[in-house]
Design goal:
Helix content: 40-55%
Number of strands: 10
Mean pLDDT: 94
CATH topology of the largest domain: TIM Barrel
Strand content: 5-15%
Bound molecules: flavin mononucleotide
Low-confidence stretches: none
CATH superfamily of the largest domain: Aldolase class I
CATH class of the largest domain: Alpha Beta
Structural class: alpha/beta
CATH architecture of the largest domain: Alpha-Beta Barrel
Length: about 350
């Protein structure tokens, strides 16, 4: 059970656009303010340092790492430690842990705080079978006693805010019970993806569940699910009363979503979508940061999905797909990008 990596589009929503939203920066703790209150989601194999830096530059108020295995971190696993790579320009940054043992999660929280995390987050939403069958991710949602114990242990172990990211429930929503258990355990915020584990990514996000949770708790509530532009962000804020929004699929190949949301929340005119020149510039920067972080060889493989997302739905996508198997260097990557840009120009299409 999982989601296809190729076609990760949030469903479109065609309702009337709500009026402007006024939201102050969102305070998670004395040293952590989300300004604007817009967050880049944790995404496994996506939100590594290069993409987090790009999204911060575009205006995200907080970025979250990929999920990091708490036990492996505590045991000193080298690959897991490599994921704990935080760059100065990322702050504020939240490190997401997954696991289900209070003492191990407390120890892992202390490690990530020591390594520079501004926030420690716990994954309670991952629906993948291999994660939930071990009682982690969304597998935690039905055990509110354990949730309380985990948050108590993590909050006692660190001075930075501790947060959790949940789904609405397993099959039925129990988000209010989960949120209260987190709050009693000392959580500073809850992010809620308004789908149950059984929903996976089907249908539309249920905003009523997010609104219900917001009314029931005193901590910060971050609304997540199907936010991909300023219109859907306004709708999330209006309908749920949430304090901040989080964007995942809408940010794939589209870091500009953050500057759009930031401008709209500041009452400014929403900037135009990037033209081809800007898209190429941002992509080149993404590639350079990637090479800087992971080296050229690894970049030539891992950057492929990003390239496709940047050109998704444009005349350049087909051209790019044909070139993906021939990427062996930075020069190859940029040649493929240029060919995709050229294909877009030929049909006179806008880049986005
Ligand atoms: C490729 C991918 C990887 C994801 N990895 C994580 C993860 O590591 N931790 C997590 O809490 N959620 C993860 N999610 C879920 C997202 O953070 C988010 O909750 C979900 O996609 C709904 O938001 P959206 O409608 O903006 O996409 C992932 C989603 C995608 C598409």
């Amino acid at each position: 059970m999982g989601i296809s990596f190729d076609n990760l589009k949030p469903p479109r929503w065609g309702g009337p656009v709500p009026g402007p939203v006024e939201r102050d920066p969102c305070v998670l703790g004395p040293d952590v303010v989300l300004d604007p209150p817009v967050v880049l989601s944790p995404m496994a194999a996506v939100t590594n340092p290069p993409y987090r830096m790009i999204c911060r530059e575009m205006g995200a108020g907080l970025v979250v790492t990929e999920m990091i295995h708490a036990r492996k971190l505590v045991e000193g696993d080298e690959r897991t430690w490599q994921m704990l790579d935080i760059r100065p320009s990322e702050h504020p940054v939240s490190v997401q842990l997954f696991g289900n043992e209070p003492s191990v999660l407390a120890e892992a929280a202390a490690i990530v705080a020591e390594e520079g995390a501004d926030v420690v987050d716990l994954n309670m939403g991952c629906p993948m079978r291999k994660v939930v069958s071990n009682g982690c991710g969304a597998g935690l949602l039905e055990d509110t006693k354990l949730i309380y114990e985990i948050f108590r242990a993590m909050s006692d172990a660190v001075d930075v805010p501790v947060t959790g990211k949940i789904r609405a429930g397993w099959e039925e929503s129990n988000a209010v019970d989960v949120g209260r258990a987190m709050q009693d355990g000392g959580a500073a915020a809850v992010t809620i993806h308004g789908r149950t584990r059984s929903d996976m990514y089907d249908g539309h996000v249920d905003l009523a569940i997010i609104a219900e949770l917001k009314k029931a708790v005193d901590m910060v509530v971050i609304g997540n699910g199907d936010v991909h532009d300023w219109q859907s962000a306004r709708r999330m804020f209006h309908t749920t009363g949430c304090d901040a929004v989080m964007v995942a699929r809408g940010a794939l190949g589209n870091p500009w979503v953050f500057r759009e949301l930031a401008a709209d929340l500041a009452g400014e005119e929403v900037p135009a979508r990037p033209d081809l020149a800007e898209k190429r510039r941002t992509l080149a920067r993404h590639v350079d940061l990637y090479i800087d972080t992971f080296g050229e060889e690894r970049t030539t493989f891992e950057i492929r999905k990003h390239l496709l997302w940047y050109f998704r739905g444009t005349p350049g996508e087909k051209t790019l797909r044909r070139k993906l198997k021939d990427l062996h260097s930075r020069a190859d990557i940029m040649r493929a990008v240029d060919a995709a840009c050229e294909a877009c120009r030929e049909v006179g299409a806008k880049a986005s």
